[in-house]
Amino acid sequence: MGYDIERFVGYVNEGLLCSICRDVLEDPLQAPCEHAFCTACIHGWLVHHSNCPEDRQMIDVSLLRPLYRYMKNDLNRLQLHCKNREYGCEMVCSLESIDRHERECEYSQIPCSNAGCTVQIERRNLDSHLAVCEYRSRECPNGCGYTILSAEDTQHNCVAELRTELELLRSEMICRVEEAKHEMESRLDSQRRHMVQKESILQNEIEELKSQMSRMMSDVRSLMAAERQHRQELEQAELEKREL
């Protein structure tokens, strides 16, 4: 949507009006047929149509271009009232600088910065509102360190608040201890399973070594028996040789 034409001072050229909303162009774009539109207006139009709302020529989003420079300059020089005129602001400035002014305007309606407060207040009156806002907060004057709202002044009890805080801290500590305990138990279980697995592997390796040792001893005994047999055969052959 464009800027309300009623806000402008003096004559506004017809070429500076949006062809859709008929207000003064805001963030303007121009079609190849040279009709100009607010960006929001033409994008909304092209969702349901594929032509220019003025002359019905076919257009596409990709064909839209920024406004001619001379038209943009004419647009920026237009003078208009601040949108907060109804609240008392009498500022009249160029369209080019109106956004900057309205962001800082003392008559702008802004929300109270205190959490929970729904009051909308003029920027110039914000400080005076904050001084009396029922949602304003401050630190307990008795030194307990608790932040209280003004509305809670009469209900605030330092001992009760500190006791509540202590209970919360105790509960948090218990939870952390339980979490640490569970984590340690989980780690111990994991290490225990790992050690059992390791022990099983080592036991299997020992059994395999024993089996290999047994086979080696059997082979050694076989070799020794073969050697004795061979020696006896040699001795027998030697005896036969002598007899011959």
Short synopsis of the structure:
It is built from five helices and nine strands; from the N terminus they run ββαβαββαββαββα.
What's the total count of β strands?
Answer: 9
How many helices in DSSP terms? 5
Could you say which structural class the secondary elements and strand pairing correspond to? mainly alpha
Strand fraction equals: 5-15%
| Mean pLDDT rating | 87
- What about the largest sheet? 3 strands, antiparallel
The CATH class of the domain at 5-104 is identified as Alpha Beta
CATH architecture of the domain at 5-104: 2-Layer Sandwich
The arrangement of helices and strands along the chain is EEHEHEEHEEHEEH
Lateral strand order in the biggest sheet: 2-1-3
Radius of gyration: 47 Å
Unreliable segments of 5+ consecutive residues: none
The rough form would be described as elongated
Tell me the CATH superfamily of the domain at 5-104.
Answer: Zinc/RING finger domain, C3HC4 (zinc finger)
